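Run log, item B.
One chain of 75 residues. Sequence copied directly from the ordering sheet:
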Amino acid sequence: MRLTRRALTEARSCSSDPLCAERLPRKPEDFLQGAACHVCLFVSETTCERGNRFLDRRFVVPIGDPALALCRDLP
């Protein structure tokens, strides 16, 4: 549980913030990623089954609108 809590706490920030955190998916060129980048979430394209598509930290931890986050109550 400590490892999970630590990972979630660290997911709240990225060294590319605020650019990464404020990034919104836009059509047509890059609508498959939100607040995610090579610094914080992306892994090797051959490792990721989904090719790093549909990643967004906002849906896991509170960034911007806390109502979107699955884990809102982080210390």
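Observations after the first pass:
- Residues 1-75 form one domain.
- The first helix runs from residue 2 to 10.
Flagged for discussion on Thursday.
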